[in-house]
Structures are given as structure tokens and as C-alpha cells.
Design brief:
A four-stranded antiparallel beta sheet has the order 3-2-5-6, with no helix packed on it. The chain is built from one helix and seven strands; from the N terminus they run βββββββα. It is of the alpha+beta class and 111 residues long.
């Protein structure tokens, strides 16, 4: 089965994502274009891991080409619209990013 791994928020392809079929324990990784090839059956679970992203599992309900979206591990990796310095929105965006970084470091310590 062929598949592609994407960043959930930017739709950019993710290279070097580790893909494991938890039933057969077959492993592979995505290439520079985010593509991969692995044997699966309906009912299998694929576990996807990649540095900078949350580990995710996908339950296979159809044996069709797969499109998988990974969530970034740190919320600040989600793209933000640029803001003008000195505006209220710039300050709010800066404050929001600071809070997200603090939340992200707390989440990382629990692992």
C-alpha cells in the first residue's frame, strides 16, 4: 500500500517519518517527498513517528492509498499570520506564542 505523510496545518510533505504496522511489525519510512510503501490489511493499525510531531496511530478501514496528516508536537510550529510591530494584534500574538511555548514544554516533560 502506498501513502503520503503531510503536516496537518501546512499540507507540506514530511520526510523521514517512521511508519510501523503494529500487527505485522513491518517498518518503513517516508522518503524526501513524504511517500512510503508498506503492506497492510483492513483492521491493521499504523503507528507514525517523526521528530517534531506527535506520535499518532491510524486504524486502516480501507486498503486504498493512504493520506496521513501529522500534528506538530509544539503548537508554535503552527504557522501564524505576520503582524505589524506596535499593534495590539502583534502583542497578543507574541503573548499567545509565549504561552504556547510554556504549554509545549510542560507537555514534553510528561513523556
Amino acid at each position: 500500500m502506498k501513502g503520503i505523510v503531510f503536516h496537518k496545518h501546512t499540507n507540506t510533505r514530511i520526510k523521514n517519518a517512521g511508519i510501523c504496522n503494529t500487527r505485522s511489525l513491518e517498518r518503513t519510512s517516508s522518503n524526501a517527498m513524504g511517500s512510503f510503501d508498506i503492506r497492510i490489511q483492513e483492521g491493521d493499525t499504523l503507528q507514525i513517528t517523526c521528530e517534531g510531531y506527535l506520535k499518532q496511530e491510524f486504524w486502516i478501514t480501507k486498503t486504498e492509498n493512504l493520506v496521513l496528516y501529522l500534528e506538530p508536537a509544539v503548537p508554535s510550529l503552527v504557522p501564524q499570520a505576520p503582524q505589524k510591530k506596535g499593534s495590539f494584534f502583534y502583542f497578543f500574538t507574541f503573548l499567545s506564542k509565549s504561552v504556547q511555548k510554556i504549554k509545549g514544554s510542560v507537555i514534553q516533560r510528561k513523556k
